[in-house]
Amino acid sequence: MANTLRTLLSKVTRPAKPRPPRQIPVPRRTRHLEYSPNLDGDADPGEIVWTWVPYEDDPAQGKDRPVLVVGRNGYRLLGLMLSSQADRDGQRNWIALGPGGWDREARPSWIRLDRVLQVDERGIRREGAILDQLLFDRVAAKLRADYGWR
Fold this sequence. Notes:
Blueprint: H1 2-13, E1 47-54, E2 62-73, E3 76-83, E4 94-98, E5 109-120, E6 124-130, H2 133-147
Antiparallel strand pairs: 1-2, 1-6, 2-3, 3-5, 4-5
Protein backbone atom coordinates (compact mmCIF):
# COMPACT_ATOMS: atom_id res chain seq x y z
CA MET A 1 0.00 0.00 0.00
CA ALA A 2 2.79 2.43 0.87
CA ASN A 3 4.49 1.72 -2.49
CA THR A 4 1.27 2.36 -4.40
CA LEU A 5 0.73 5.64 -2.56
CA ARG A 6 4.34 6.71 -3.22
CA THR A 7 3.97 5.93 -6.95
CA LEU A 8 0.75 7.94 -7.20
CA LEU A 9 2.23 10.89 -5.31
CA SER A 10 5.37 10.95 -7.48
CA LYS A 11 3.20 11.25 -10.60
CA VAL A 12 1.23 14.13 -9.11
CA THR A 13 4.19 16.08 -7.68
CA ARG A 14 6.64 15.49 -10.54
CA PRO A 15 7.18 18.74 -12.44
CA ALA A 16 5.80 18.74 -15.94
CA LYS A 17 8.28 18.73 -18.80
CA PRO A 18 8.63 22.34 -19.99
CA ARG A 19 7.15 23.09 -23.38
CA PRO A 20 9.22 24.90 -25.96
CA PRO A 21 8.24 28.55 -26.41
CA ARG A 22 5.47 29.10 -28.91
CA GLN A 23 6.69 30.87 -32.01
CA ILE A 24 4.31 33.34 -33.55
CA PRO A 25 5.41 35.03 -36.75
CA VAL A 26 5.13 38.81 -36.61
CA PRO A 27 5.82 41.30 -39.36
CA ARG A 28 9.20 42.96 -39.16
CA ARG A 29 8.92 46.38 -37.59
CA THR A 30 9.13 48.95 -40.35
CA ARG A 31 11.29 51.93 -39.62
CA HIS A 32 10.37 55.31 -41.01
CA LEU A 33 13.01 57.81 -42.11
CA GLU A 34 12.62 61.46 -41.32
CA TYR A 35 14.66 64.58 -42.08
CA SER A 36 13.71 67.49 -39.80
CA PRO A 37 16.86 69.02 -38.31
CA ASN A 38 16.60 72.02 -36.00
CA LEU A 39 19.60 73.01 -33.88
CA ASP A 40 17.46 73.92 -30.90
CA GLY A 41 19.19 71.86 -28.22
CA ASP A 42 17.04 68.77 -28.87
CA ALA A 43 18.18 65.92 -31.09
CA ASP A 44 16.20 65.77 -34.33
CA PRO A 45 16.29 63.50 -37.39
CA GLY A 46 18.93 64.77 -39.80
CA GLU A 47 21.29 65.86 -37.04
CA ILE A 48 24.50 64.22 -35.98
CA VAL A 49 24.72 64.07 -32.19
CA TRP A 50 27.20 62.62 -29.74
CA THR A 51 26.11 59.83 -27.43
CA TRP A 52 27.42 56.73 -25.68
CA VAL A 53 27.53 53.72 -28.02
CA PRO A 54 28.18 50.28 -26.49
CA TYR A 55 30.63 47.93 -28.19
CA GLU A 56 28.91 45.02 -29.92
CA ASP A 57 31.24 42.40 -28.43
CA ASP A 58 31.01 43.83 -24.89
CA PRO A 59 27.92 46.02 -24.28
CA ALA A 60 29.23 46.88 -20.80
CA GLN A 61 31.88 48.98 -22.54
CA GLY A 62 31.73 51.55 -25.31
CA LYS A 63 32.58 55.13 -26.13
CA ASP A 64 31.13 58.49 -27.09
CA ARG A 65 30.49 58.57 -30.82
CA PRO A 66 28.79 60.71 -33.41
CA VAL A 67 25.42 59.24 -34.41
CA LEU A 68 23.14 60.33 -37.25
CA VAL A 69 19.54 60.55 -36.05
CA VAL A 70 17.36 59.10 -38.84
CA GLY A 71 13.98 58.75 -37.14
CA ARG A 72 12.05 58.02 -33.97
CA ASN A 73 10.53 55.01 -32.26
CA GLY A 74 8.22 56.48 -29.66
CA TYR A 75 10.36 58.46 -27.22
CA ARG A 76 13.55 56.94 -28.50
CA LEU A 77 15.69 58.20 -31.34
CA LEU A 78 16.83 55.86 -34.09
CA GLY A 79 20.45 56.48 -35.00
CA LEU A 80 23.33 55.16 -37.07
CA MET A 81 26.87 55.41 -35.75
CA LEU A 82 29.71 57.15 -37.53
CA SER A 83 33.36 56.19 -37.63
CA SER A 84 36.45 58.09 -38.70
CA GLN A 85 38.44 54.90 -39.35
CA ALA A 86 39.60 55.02 -42.97
CA ASP A 87 39.48 51.21 -43.28
CA ARG A 88 35.66 51.54 -43.39
CA ASP A 89 35.99 52.92 -46.92
CA GLY A 90 34.46 50.44 -49.35
CA GLN A 91 33.32 48.04 -46.62
CA ARG A 92 29.90 46.48 -46.91
CA ASN A 93 27.23 48.26 -44.83
CA TRP A 94 29.23 51.50 -44.63
CA ILE A 95 28.80 54.70 -46.69
CA ALA A 96 31.34 57.51 -46.89
CA LEU A 97 30.05 60.88 -45.64
CA GLY A 98 33.27 62.85 -45.85
CA PRO A 99 34.26 65.47 -43.27
CA GLY A 100 31.72 67.54 -41.38
CA GLY A 101 31.09 69.86 -38.47
CA TRP A 102 30.50 66.93 -36.11
CA ASP A 103 34.26 66.18 -36.06
CA ARG A 104 36.47 68.93 -34.62
CA GLU A 105 39.46 67.59 -36.55
CA ALA A 106 37.50 67.60 -39.85
CA ARG A 107 38.34 63.94 -40.48
CA PRO A 108 36.33 62.06 -43.11
CA SER A 109 33.58 59.88 -41.64
CA TRP A 110 31.69 56.75 -42.64
CA ILE A 111 28.23 55.75 -41.47
CA ARG A 112 27.24 52.18 -40.57
CA LEU A 113 23.89 51.13 -42.04
CA ASP A 114 23.33 47.69 -40.51
CA ARG A 115 23.37 48.58 -36.81
CA VAL A 116 20.45 50.71 -35.67
CA LEU A 117 20.80 52.30 -32.25
CA GLN A 118 17.82 53.24 -30.10
CA VAL A 119 18.94 56.23 -28.09
CA ASP A 120 17.12 57.86 -25.21
CA GLU A 121 17.08 61.62 -25.81
CA ARG A 122 18.47 62.14 -22.30
CA GLY A 123 21.57 60.19 -23.38
CA ILE A 124 22.56 62.76 -25.98
CA ARG A 125 25.76 64.50 -24.90
CA ARG A 126 25.73 67.29 -27.51
CA GLU A 127 24.53 68.20 -30.95
CA GLY A 128 27.27 68.03 -33.53
CA ALA A 129 25.88 69.31 -36.81
CA ILE A 130 23.13 69.06 -39.37
CA LEU A 131 23.88 66.54 -42.09
CA ASP A 132 23.43 68.03 -45.55
CA GLN A 133 20.10 66.88 -47.01
CA LEU A 134 21.76 65.46 -50.15
CA LEU A 135 23.95 63.22 -47.98
CA PHE A 136 20.97 62.29 -45.80
CA ASP A 137 18.99 61.41 -48.93
CA ARG A 138 21.85 59.17 -50.11
CA VAL A 139 21.86 57.35 -46.76
CA ALA A 140 18.04 57.13 -46.82
CA ALA A 141 18.00 55.68 -50.35
CA LYS A 142 20.42 52.93 -49.31
CA LEU A 143 18.38 52.17 -46.16
CA ARG A 144 15.20 51.92 -48.24
CA ALA A 145 16.76 49.79 -50.98
CA ASP A 146 18.80 47.39 -48.85
CA TYR A 147 17.24 47.40 -45.37
CA GLY A 148 13.47 47.83 -45.84
CA TRP A 149 13.13 51.32 -44.36
CA ARG A 150 10.31 53.62 -45.49
